[in-house]
TrEMBL record:
The keyword Nucleus applies. This is Uncharacterized protein. One of its GO terms (molecular function) is DNA binding. SUPFAM superfamilies: Homeodomain-like (SSF46689). Keywords: DNA-binding, Nucleus, Repeat. The keyword Transmembrane helix does not apply.
């Protein structure tokens, strides 16, 4: 992982793919302290990432209750009915 550097007075944060170690640090910190104040999570977990990146990683990939895989016929029917009712909101 790249070292923290300052460029024009701003911290340079890591970009690109997350490592397994970063995932572990983020998951461990959230398990112990909860998922609030993402900027503080990024700093306190020892990650060289911005708060937004940490939030998106947690919500889209690391949360334990994320459902992966194909959707059921009932779920597809619900989606279609809601889209018909609400449109593209």
């Amino acid at each position: 992982m790249a070292a923290k550097k300052e460029e024009n007075g701003k911290k340079v944060v890591s970009r690109g793919a997350w490592t397994a170690e970063e995932d572990r640090k983020l998951a461990h910190y959230i398990e112990a302290n909860g998922a609030k104040r993402w900027k503080n999570i990024a700093l306190n977990a020892g990650l060289n990432r911005c708060g937004k990146s940490c939030r998106l990683r947690w919500l889209n990939y690391l949360r334990p209750n994320i459902k992966r895989g194909n959707i059921s016929d009932e779920e597809e029917d619900l989606i279609l009915r809601l889209h018909k009712l609400l449109g593209n909101r």
